[in-house]
Amino acid sequence: MARKVPLLKPAHVKARLKFANDHLDDPEESWEKVMWSDETKIELFGHNSTKRVWRKKNDEYHPKNTIPTVKHGGGSIMLWGCFSAHGTGRLHCIKERMTGAMYCEILGNNLLPSVRALKMGRGWVFQHDNDPKHTARITKEWLCKKHIKVLAWPSQSPDLNPIENLWRELKLRVSQRQPRNLTDLEKICVEEWAKIPPAVCANLVKNYRKQHYRQHWFPHAPCRGSGYRCLRINRRMDPLIGKAASAVGLAQEQLSKSLPIELTLWVDPSEVSYRIGEDGSTCVLYQKQPPPLIHQRTGRRN
Q1: Which of 91, 98, 103, 145 allows an S-S link to 193, with CB 3.0 to 4.6 Å?
Q2: 205: Cβ–Cβ under 8 A, 6 or more apart, which residues?
């Protein structure tokens, strides 16, 4: 089954790559200073996770092998929440259509108390996505007035936010308690959100880089490469290229004169390609040929 992913335009891809490269060398401790936030909708009877069952053939509609559903999920609530490596912060139920002014009120009543409760200390950073309410002028002015540093966030990147894992955890917990109405649903959400162990939050943040560099050659130590198997020279030499030059006895000055000012090199096990300049064409330096097809002879009995 094909995976569902956010629709990414070239500008989104470029912004996501910049985000990865900008934070590639950040120590793990720096992510512990981030307060992650997001909104989510929870339906009364609408948990959409896949349930796997053992069943006999033609027994798929037996009650024990089905998940009951109702039209439109039986109603829903919208939640705003935050968390850090130290645990979950406050959870707020959004009763009306949210505006920039309402968002500022939510932050004032929930974000700042959460920061104090989780003992974030000085130098903490706030993360939220690029929703229009988050980027509205009134919101930016409020954040500036409160001297809150905001983590620059690439658009169309919900998969980069570890709070998505907590939302899934919350929805699983809530569905197990089977709320009867929307009031009950809100109460159970708040209770279950508070019950999520701080160790779960700490583990999500600890594995943040590892999770997003899992396709890298060195997933447990992404700083050993340049992220996404991409080597780059942009008026500044990539450390890995400089190290390679030093290993073969080539001086840094000589290497700089030999290479273009702006060069991007993509290295994969089966292909090496490059691009000169930001708008240049991508050319292939090396491409591994697929192994030849082997035709097996079939014996024939007489």
Answers
A1: 91
A2: 31, 32, 34, 84, 85, 162
